[in-house]
Amino acid sequence: MPPRRAHTKSRQGCDQCKRRRVKCDEKGPPCSNCISRELSCTYFRAPSRPDSRHDFLMNGILALGALHIAATIESPASLVYIDTALQYHNLTFAPYRAAVDSINPLNCEAALAQSIITTVIGIALPRVTAARGESSSLTENIVVVFELLQGVKKIHRIGESWSKLELFSRRRNFWDTGSVSLDSDTRDALERLDALNDRTIASIGPDQHQVNKDAIVYLRHFSNKVANFVDAANVLAWLAMIDKEFVDNVRRRQPLALLILMHWGVLLGELDGQHWWARDSGRALVTELLDALHPGDMEWANAVAWPQKKMGL
What we know:
The chain is an all-alpha fold. The protein has helices at 15-20, 32-37, 55-72, 79-101, 108-129, 138-159, 166-169, 184-199, 201-228, 232-241, 244-251, 255-269, 281-292, 298-310.
């Protein structure tokens, strides 16, 4: 009796043949089975894995994973995971900056992914590290995130020209605001910010006035998007879009910049209950900035009152 021929099972057939559990000739799309049945023939394509040469992304993923574990368990068990997260997180900074400085088709998606991880970690760290008895400023963490995210503008500007990059080709129209308009309270709050900015133009100068104006315009845009759909991308994108001068103003504790950031804290609060890393972060940021701001007149007091009310403070 002749020996049986070895059979190698292929898993590369089309989705339709797999669903019907029939052998696919794998010559498609379309394959011969789908042609004869006049079916739409599609093949599953697993997403490409990040290049292992992108150490900054690998370390970022490990840092985020360790921080997530730390956020779900109690101290003292969480402490070792916090330390691990910080160690991996610190390893990402230098190579990430180097990647952004020499952005190319091979590292573009990895750099963009790392920018998102950096943002998430920066928001989550103050609450999670409180388990170690450390007092960490969320405002200062946001400033660090601001600075690191300045590279995202460069990634988008250069990377969008590489049409084969999946992250860019899959993106929806980011500047559509949707059909739902802002509620009157939010609209009034943003108009108060505009009025305060206009009132201070004599003291801050036209350049700083424009920087603040742009930050408010972006805040209004992303607030409108969140009104239509609460999505982390619609909240975090503001951090990447604002000008470096605005970041410097926050670092210098310029009152109007802090007030604008406080209003973004309300937007961040919309993610509370949806993402582990955003839990209580909006409220914490608004609380921190309330302590830093001392309204000098009724107009400032009214501007501060809205985020205070929204966060239940």
